[in-house]
Write a structure and sequence with these properties.
Order of helices and strands: HEHEHEHEHEHEHHHHHEHH
Strand content: 5-15%
Distance between the termini: 69 Å
Strand order of the largest sheet: 3-2-1-4-5-6-7
Number of helices: 13
Shape: flat
Largest sheet: 7 strands, parallel
C-alpha cells in the first residue's frame, strides 16, 4: 500500500521533471525564434555597394549577377569568354559591368583589381563572390596524373586564393563581405581528382580568412551546395572526361577495371547522384544574396535538401559507414568483384 507521503513525493518528482522539460523546450523555442529574427535583419543602401563576382558565364554566377543587378547593386561580373560577358550584359541593366578574367592568370587578376578600383573609388568593394570553378578531370584516383589534379586546383582553390588576396585592400576599405563557393564535396569526399581536394581547401582557407579578417570588419561566408544541375554535372562532360582519362591507361589497369566500367559508372551516377540534382539553382543564389545583404550573415550555408538531410549529416558518421554508402554509388572494378 502506497503511503500519502510516497504519493506526494512521486507527484512532486513528476511535476519537477515536467517543469524542467518545459523550461528546456521554452529555451530552445526562444533561441530558434531569436535566430530567425536576427537572420532576417537586412542592410540597406544597395545602390551604393559594389559586388565583384567570378565565373559569371553561366550557372550560379550568372544568375547571381542578374539577381543583384535587379536589387540595385553595382555588379562587376567576371566572365571567362567574350560570349558569356556579352550575353550577360544584354540581359542586365546598364549598371552591370563585365570584364574577362581567367582566375589562374595572376596578371589578369591585377588588371581586374585596377578596373574595380576605378569603379569603387574610396568606398571600396562591398562584396567579393568567388564562384569560378570546374569539376573535371574527375574519376578513379589511379587514372589521374599530377596535372589532372592541378588543372582543378589551379581554378577552384589557388585561383580563389589569388583573387581574394589581391582584392583584400578594396574589401578592407568597405569592411565588406567575402562569399566563397565550396561544396558538400568539401565535407565528404567520394570521387578521385582535384575537385574534392579543392573544396576541402576552400573550407580551410575560408575559416582562416574569417578569423584573420574579423578585426578589420570583413565577414566571410561559405556556400556549400548539394547537387544542382549546372555545367559541372552534365553527363556528356563526365563521360568525355572519363574516356579521356581511360585512353592512355596501361592495359593492366584497364583489365582490372573492365571494359564496361565507364558505362556502369555513368548508369549508376544517373540512377543515384543524377536523381539528387536539383534544377532550382536560385536556392544557391538566394544564400549568396543573404550573405551579402544580411546584417548578420551566416558562416556556412548548406544549400539543398540533399546537403542538409544527407551529405552534411553523412560527414559526421564513422568512416566505415561513409565508405559503405559511397561504394554503393560507384561500380566495383572487375578485379574487385567476387567470382
Amino acid at each position: 500500500m502506497v503511503s500519502i507521503g510516497d504519493l506526494v513525493y512521486h507527484v512532486g518528482e513528476v511535476m519537477l521533471s515536467h517543469l524542467a522539460l518545459t523550461c528546456v523546450s521554452l529555451l530552445v523555442t526562444f533561441a530558434a525564434v531569436r535566430w530567425f529574427i536576427r537572420d532576417s535583419y537586412k542592410l540597406d543602401g544597395f545602390s551604393q555597394k559594389h559586388v565583384f563576382i567570378t565565373g559569371c558565364d553561366s550557372g550560379f554566377g550568372n544568375l547571381l549577377a542578374k539577381q543583384l543587378d535587379r536589387k540595385g547593386f553595382k555588379v562587376i561580373a567576371a566572365c571567362l569568354s567574350e560570349k558569356g560577358a556579352a550575353d550577360l550584359a544584354a540581359a542586365a541593366s546598364p549598371r552591370l559591368k563585365t570584364l574577362l578574367l581567367n582566375v589562374t592568370d595572376s596578371a589578369g587578376i591585377r588588371s581586374a583589381v585596377d578596373f574595380v578600383s576605378r569603379e569603387v573609388g574610396e568606398r571600396g568593394l562591398w562584396g567579393l563572390v568567388n564562384n569560378a570553378g570546374r569539376g573535371t578531370p574527375i574519376g578513379p584516383t589511379e587514372w589521374m596524373q599530377l596535372e589532372d589534379f592541378m588543372t582543378v586546383l589551379d581554378v577552384n582553390l589557388l585561383g580563389l586564393i589569388d583573387v581574394t588576396l589581391q582584392f583584400l585592400p578594396l574589401l578592407k576599405k568597405a569592411r565588406g563581405r567575402v562569399v566563397n563557393v565550396a561544396s558538400i564535396a568539401g565535407r565528404a569526399a567520394m570521387a578521385g581528382g582535384g575537385y574534392c581536394l579543392s573544396k576541402y581547401g576552400v573550407e580551410a582557407f575560408s575559416d582562416s580568412l574569417r578569423l584573420n579578417m574579423l578585426p578589420f570588419g570583413i565577414k566571410v561566408s561559405i556556400i556549400e551546395p548539394g547537387y544542382f544541375k549546372t555545367n559541372i554535372l552534365y553527363n556528356d562532360l563526365i563521360e568525355a572526361n572519363l574516356k579521356k582519362l581511360w585512353a592512355p591507361l596501361p592495359q593492366d589497369v584497364k583489365d582490372a577495371y573492365g571494359a564496361t566500367y565507364i558505362e556502369d559508372f555513368l548508369r549508376m551516377f544517373d540512377n543515384s547522384l543524377g536523381k539528387l540534382c536539383s534544377p532550382d539553382i536560385a536556392k544557391v543564389t538566394r544564400c549568396m544574396e543573404h550573405a551579402l545583404t544580411a546584417r548578420h550573415p551566416r558562416t556556412r550555408y548548406g544549400v539543398g535538401w540533399d546537403a542538409k538531410l544527407f551529405w552534411i549529416p553523412l560527414s559526421y558518421l564513422p568512416s566505415f559507414m561513409t565508405d559503405f554508402i559511397f561504394n554503393s554509388f560507384t561500380p566495383l572494378p572487375k578485379a574487385g568483384r567476387k567470382p
